[in-house]
Specification:
Blueprint lengths: L1 H9 L1 H17 L6 H7 L2 H13 L2 H8 L6 H24 L12 H9 L1 H16 L4 H15 L9 H24 L4 H18 L5 H34 L5
Helix pairs in contact: 1-4, 2-3, 2-4, 4-5, 4-8, 6-11, 6-12, 7-11, 8-9, 8-11, 9-10, 10-12
Length: 252
């Protein structure tokens, strides 16, 4: 056991991905047996985060991110409303190019359950992986890397759907991950805030763009998230420059 723990601690990111993928992929392929297996699969990232944090002694840090609910209210608002703003922008474009307004859709009971249970993902993605990568690279690069891992984690869901379908999904998830990385960092990687945003991103399009071709809305909302990510990056750069300037000694 000490040798295994030491190995995990030396390779935290690789170990996290191995545990998260192995657990989730095992249960994802059993969804045809029962949807309960799919819900259980959502907790693969959480398991990976807990295992690695236990191994390298950072479990208190992970626990603090999971229970960090006292983020500024404005960031809860951003987390919930931003995905709806993105979907609303896509809706406006959809109508502007000559399509009829689709009206408002609804969400099912299982989608409400998933809204809450994606905390199992967020304990891993924004509670563990994003801050680990952030320590090694810039915030945009960390978001992109997290987005790639997050995309690949969904791969079993696309078996048989074709490469084009999976690639289109990636166009949406990766820029969303970058945006979520910025929001997570502003809230000290609060898993609860990340869960709110993840859940909102899952339901915003079914509500505002019901019946619209999935490939269309994935590409369009993905492009909008790219614009939002650029906006966050520019704002972050300005804030960093201002902080450095304020900290610099005045010229005599």
């Amino acid at each position: 056991m000490p040798a295994i723990r030491s190995t995990i601690a030396r390779h935290p990111v690789a170990s996290y991905l191995a545990v998260a993928f192995a657990f989730s992929w095992t249960f994802t392929v059993l969804v045809s047996v029962s949807v309960a297996f799919g819900l259980l699969a959502l907790f693969g990232p959480a398991l990976g985060a807990v295992v690695v944090s236990w191994a390298d002694g950072t479990l208190p840090d992970l626990r603090s991110r999971i229970t960090a609910w006292r983020a500024p209210l404005r960031w809860y608002a951003v987390a919930f409303l931003l995905p709806f703003a993105v979907a609303a922008t896509a809706l406006a474009f959809y109508v502007a190019i000559g399509n009829p307004a689709p009206g408002l859709g609804s969400i099912s009971a299982i989608e409400v359950v998933i809204f809450v249970l994606v905390i199992g993902e967020e304990i891993g993605w924004r509670g563990f992986l994003q801050p680990r990568l952030r320590d090694r690279m810039g915030i945009v690069s960390a978001g992109l890397a997290t987005g790639v891992a997050w995309t690949l984690w969904h791969l079993p869901m696309y078996l048989g759907a074709g490469l084009a379908s999976f690639a289109t999904f990636a166009i949406w998830v990766i820029p969303l991950a970058v945006v979520m990385g910025f929001v997570a960092e502003r809230t000290r990687f609060s898993v609860i805030v990340a869960t709110v945003m993840h859940g909102a991103a899952n339901i915003a399009t079914p509500i505002l763009l019901p019946g619209v071709d999935r490939t269309w809305w994935l590409v369009v909302t993905g492009a909008i998230y790219v614009v939002v990510a650029v906006g966050f990056a520019l704002a972050d750069r300005r804030r960093t420059v201002a902080t450095v300037a304020a900290a610099a000694p005045s010229a005599s």
